[in-house]
Structures are given as structure tokens and as C-alpha cells.
Design a protein that fits this description.
Length: 315
């Protein structure tokens, strides 16, 4: 049995390709990070689309600048178009549109007679065929050069005014928390989440150290800091681990054995969203009303966001 502290950290993704980021995020579900190599991303992502694991395709984001001069009215008022999962801003430079690979794919599949949308997805397919190779996207030969649909780099997004930076800059956070806190985290619906799966992770395997890891509760709950109460918690975790491992030894699958694991069990998960959503998130999850174990993670994480994005969180 292992006991560790909870944590939350910004993951540096600035120099990662979109497909590498998608693979890193997706592999947390099975803890198959040991299978990552220079050639593994293509086959992993191909499997994601084949199996229709669409949540993984949310972890690649594109920001497109459509320059002024295009007739975009039809795009934004199309009867089937629903841009709930696209961030759209009209500026003097043109139209900024940010969305995940999943959002662009699903909008195209719902609304594929939209001239401007087709053109954007066509540009994205040229940029990274892997994400869109199964979509038959027509090329509009009478459209102004596709290169004018500019796909922004992370550095170019970071150079945007604060009002746009908040809405178009996405950040990846990795949490190591207990299961109770993870249940609260994933309630933030505009965010994308990928989480360690107890259904598939077999904690008796060597890569997990052949035991179960739990998150220490003593920092968050004063009542558990005395020896007697902490001892009761420790004994309960030890017994849960014992029964879990015995179930596996007896032929139970991980998804069956996990039913005896408590809320204190460690889990890892990724949060992926824009700075505007993180602003809302911290406003809810760092206050005195938030659960103590949540505050233990979110308060120091909020400081890391302030340090990295002072123009957004400098308050």
C-alpha cells in the first residue's frame, strides 16, 4: 500500500504536437504511457477514431483566423450549425475560431453543406490528415487560397489581447487526487476530461508496484490528524487493498475487484479547457465553501496560473 499527497500541476504542452498531446492525454486512461515512442502516436490515434473514443479527440485544439472579406453570414446562421463547442470572436483582424478536433469533426458531419465550415475543415485536414482522413471533404477551387485561413501557433495565441487570450488559450492540468475529488472535478462540463480507469488498470501489476495507492486525508481534515483516527483510516485502506488483491488473485476482473475500493483511492486525470473556464473554475473551487481536499489542490494550482498568465489572473 502506498500513501501520497494530492497535487495539481500545469502540464507544459507548448512544444508538443497536437497528436503527441492527444496520445499523452489518452494513455492516462489505461496508464499505457510506457508504450509511447516516436512512432506510436499515429497508431494510437487511428485506434481512437476506429473505436469511436471521441473524448480523446477533444485534446487537440486549433485556433483559426479567418481574415476580413469573407461572407461568413451563412456559416454562423446555418440552420444546422450549433457552435456551442466552438469559441468565435469577431475582431478588426477577422474572425477567430477555436475548437477541438472533435468539435470541428462533429460540426462538419452535422452541417457539411456549409461552404465556410467545409473550407476550414479542409484546411485542417491538409494540416494534419490523421485527424480527418475518414472525412470526405470537397475542395472548393473557387475559394481564395486556403492559406489565408491562418492556423495560429501557441505563441501567436499568447500574443493576443487579454480578452481574446482568455477565450482562445487552452491549458492542460494534471491532477493526482482521490476519487471523491475527481467526481467533483468532472462536473465542470465545458472542460474536457480524461481519467485513469479502474475498470482497466490492474493495480496488482508491476507498473503499479503491485499495490494500491491512496491519497492521504490528514492535511485536509483535522479530525484525522490524531493518531487514533488516522489509524482507523489506515486500517480501512489496508483492508480494502487486501480484499481487492485477493479478488484479482481469485480470478475477478479489475472492473469487478474495483467495487471494494474506497473514495481515498488515488486517481490521475487531465483537465483541458480555456483560461476563461479556468477563471470560473477557480472562482468556485478555491473559496471557503469548497471541499477541504479540493482547496488543498486548487489554491496552489491557482497561484501557478497567476505566475504563468499574470495578465489574466493578476487579481
Amino acid at each position: 500500500m502506498k500513501i501520497i499527497d494530492a497535487s495539481g500541476d500545469i502540464v507544459d504542452t507548448d512544444n508538443l504536437s497536437r497528436k503527441d498531446l492527444m496520445e499523452i492525454a489518452g494513455r492516462i486512461c489505461y496508464h499505457s504511457e510506457d508504450k509511447i515512442n516516436p512512432e506510436s502516436a499515429d497508431s494510437f490515434i487511428g485506434g481512437v477514431f476506429k473505436k469511436k473514443h471521441h473524448s480523446v479527440s477533444e485534446f487537440a485544439v486549433y485556433t483559426i483566423l479567418i481574415p476580413n472579406g469573407y461572407n461568413s453570414a451563412g456559416f454562423f446562421h446555418h440552420k444546422y450549425f450549433n457552435h456551442k463547442y466552438l469559441t468565435i470572436d469577431f475582431t478588426s483582424d477577422g474572425i477567430y475560431i477555436t475548437g477541438t478536433v472533435r468539435a470541428f469533426r462533429e460540426e462538419y458531419q452535422r452541417c457539411n453543406d456549409n461552404y465556410l465550415l467545409n473550407s476550414m475543415v479542409y484546411c485542417l485536414k491538409k494540416k494534419n490528415p490523421l485527424f480527418f482522413e475518414d472525412l470526405d471533404i470537397p475542395e472548393y477551387t473557387n475559394l481564395v487560397e486556403h492559406a489565408e485561413f491562418k492556423i495560429l501557433t501557441v505563441a501567436e495565441v499568447d500574443a493576443l489581447p487579454v480578452s481574446l487570450l482568455k477565450r482562445h488559450r487552452w491549458v492542460l492540468v494534471k491532477y493526482i487526487v482521490n476519487r471523491a475529488i475527481s467526481h467533483e472535478l468532472v462536473r465542470h462540463r465545458p472542460c474536457s476530461w480524461l481519467q485513469e480507469s479502474q475498470r482497466y488498470c490492474r493495480y496488482s501489476d508491476d507498473k503499479f508496484g503491485n499495490d494500491v495507492t491512496f491519497i492521504s486525508p490528514d492535511k485536509s481534515f483535522p479530525a484525522l490528524r490524531n493518531d487514533a483516527n488516522y489509524g482507523k483510516w489506515f486500517d480501512a485502506m489496508k483492508e480494502a487493498e487486501r480484499v481487492y488483491l485477493e479478488l484479482l488473485d481469485g480470478g475477478a476482473s479489475p472492473q469487478a475487484a474495483r467495487t471494494v475500493l474506497p473514495n481515498s483511492c488515488k486517481t490521475e486525470l487531465f483537465q483541458w479547457c480555456n483560461l476563461e473556464e479556468y477563471d470560473t473554475f477557480f472562482g468556485l473551487r478555491t473559496t471557503p465553501m469548497a471541499e477541504p481536499s479540493m482547496r488543498e489542490v486548487t489554491i496552489p494550482l491557482f497561484q501557478k496560473f497567476k505566475d504563468k498568465f499574470p495578465t489574466v489572473f493578476g487579481y
